[in-house]
Amino acid sequence: MRCKEAKLINENEAIIESAEPVSVGLQLRSAREVAGFSIEDIANLTFIRPDVIRDLENDRFESAGGIAYARGHIRTIAKIVHLDADALIHDFALLTGDFDRPMIDLLTENKVTTPHREFPKISYKAMSAVAAAVVAGLILVPAIGSFTDSSPKKDPVATAPQASSDAGDLTAVATKSSDVVVVLTGVNGQTWVGITDASGNQIFSGRVVQDEVKTFTDNQLLYFVIGNAGAVNLNVNGEDLGTPGAVGEVLHLQFAPGQSSQG
């Protein structure tokens, strides 16, 4: 009986020991050296700065821009040096304490994007009261108008048609009611891109590589966070904006329907 209890205790201790954090940086550095890559080689392949790679190999994640970017950099490097990216991210989570958190929360925490204001919810009782008031207004206003409108009617005066003005108004309305359409094309290496809508819902979070084309639409706003602005080309609402920034530059952009410039 005592032998069996001792065996159970040893097994539990082994499980606890196996759950302790493992150095992510040591794994990255060892795999890189075995693969025959220098830090500069990894930097050239991933567009990650050499000083950031050195910090990652020493389990220092601040220079990467926070937890969100550090996690993306670790996945990118793991693929190049033939490490299991999922297992490495699990060890990273043990070190940092961030398990299965939404990307938008990590971006907000690291000041990559700003939290969006939540609008107050309207109760069914309030909606019913508003609807009743509208119906009452539709009934009373015509009745009051029929009693008060006693002035003699004047003959209508013919006016020249304003075709050009009406056409311009129709064009403006069509422009305002259309969706925002953003086409993202990879042109130089790769970059991480995060996209949210006006309500803060995450639409896309991932990498865009060279020659890859992605299209995003929304009827209000699109918020973009681009980790490597020199790696993509933007076309917004049919207008080509070209490359929005330099290689390695992090940009925060927003686009609305009818808007062709960077917000």
Provide keyphrases for this structure.
disordered N terminus; 8 strands; alpha+beta; four-stranded antiparallel β-sheet; 434 Repressor (Amino-terminal Domain); 263 residues; elongated; 18% strand; 2 domains
Q: Could you please describe the fold and organization of this structure?
A:
With 263 residues, the chain is an alpha+beta fold. It has two domains: 2-109, lambda repressor-like DNA-binding domains (434 Repressor (Amino-terminal Domain), Orthogonal Bundle), CATH 1.10.260; 177-255. The protein is 44% helix and 18% strand. The chain has nine helices and eight strands. The protein has helices at 2-18, 24-35, 39-46, 50-56, 67-80, 85-96, 103-109, 124-148, 163-177; strands at residues 180-186, 190-197, 202-209, 213-218, 222-226, 232-236, 239-242, 251-255. A four-stranded antiparallel β-sheet has the order 4-1-6-7, with no helix packed on it. Strand 6 (232-236) and strand 7 form a beta hairpin. Helix 5 (67-80) packs antiparallel against helix 6 (85-96). The termini are far apart. Residues 1-9, 11-18 and 160-177 have low confidence and may be disordered.
Task: Summarize the helices and strands and which ones pair or pack.
Layout: H1 2-18, H2 24-35, H3 39-46, H4 50-56, H5 67-80, H6 85-96, H7 103-109, H8 124-148, H9 163-177, E1 180-186, E2 190-197, E3 202-209, E4 213-218, E5 222-226, E6 232-236, E7 239-242, E8 251-255
Antiparallel strand pairs: 1-4, 1-6, 2-3, 2-5, 5-8, 6-7
